[in-house]
Amino acid sequence: LHVYRCRGVLLEGLTITAPHGDPPKIIGDEQPWDERSVDRAPSSDGIDVDSCQGVVIRRCMISVGDDCIALKGTKGPLALEDQSSPPVQNVLVEDCDFQSGHGVLTCGSEATIVRNVVVRNCRVGAAVPVCRLKLRPDTPQFYENLVFEDLVLDGAQALFDVKPWTQFFDLGDQAPPASTVRNVVLRRISGTLAGLGELRGNKGDVIQNILLEEIEVKALRNDLLRMGPVENLRFQQVQVNGKKYPTPMVTISK
Fold first, then answer.
1. Is 244 exposed, middle or buried (0-12, 13-18, 19+ CB in 10 A)?
2. What's the pTM?
């Protein structure tokens, strides 16, 4: 299903079984997705939100072999000049059940500007990471104002899967660009998971203003959070395995 540059479209009460490599894709404005089921889709994303603004995804069950919801655009060192790929912004995901997949919400790998995204009131299971950000060393990416709140984890993989992504890397004759991740909030999250995950970028990337608040989880691994440089990382009322988990010490290289 491919909706291209539309406004005020409601798709409701459908069951979608995505074939290999061909996820449902949304390209347009003001797209509500309500009460969907995307099940047993090997090596496929659940829903691709491509170059969209004003998207609502509500009451969906997603069980796939790749990213559950992927926010996408374009890639390459000149990606910001691509007028055919406007920012992905103003996205709401709520009341969904993520049964399996590579990420509840993934930015990239083909994405430039993603902002103003809220994921709330969802269940996350089957080794799914919550916040997955693919940071390409050949693309200037700006991911900001991302909120994940009121989530219940049932064997999730991690809170964070934020790290470099080099598939199909191609700088051409351009200098390596830098990317920015900022204003990311995870709050009121409870349940079980493997670990807190990974939070790091490429050399020169900026990751700043990350808040974890009112988190109470049981983790299987001792290596709870693997990190690179992060500016203004804050943990408030975070408990892991029944013990207070303080804000990790981070060294920023100038």
1. exposed
2. 0.88
Residue the block writes with tokens 């993603």: 114
**162-178 tens-digit pLDDT:** 999 988 888 888 999 99
Are 31 and 2 a contacting pair, CB within 8 Å?
A: no
Residue 107 β-bridge partners: 71, 133
State the pLDDT at residue 167.
Answer: 85
The single-letter DSSP state of residue 57 is E
3-class SS of residue 81: helix
CA 148 to chain centre: 9
105 CA to centre of own chain: 3
Residues of the chain with pLDDT under 50: 1-7, 9, 11-17, 19, 253-254
Q: How far apart are CA 150 and CA 94, in angstroms?
A: 10
Structure tokens at 15: 């069951």
Structural domains in the chain plus CATH codes:
2-244 (2.160.20.10)
Collapsing DSSP states into helix, strand and coil, what is residue 37? strand
Measured between alpha carbons, how far is 49 from 28 in angstroms, rounded to an integer? Answer: 9
pLDDT tens digits, 129-148: 999 999 999 999 999 999 99
What is the DSSP annotation of 133-183?
EEE-TTS--EEEEEEEEEEEEEEES-SEEEEE--TT---TTSPPP--EEEE
Which of the 8 DSSP states describes residue 220?
S
Q: Which of 107, 125, 83, 248 has the alpha carbon at shortest distance from 182? A: 107
* Nearest in space to 56 (alpha carbons), one of 44, 47, 66, 67: 47
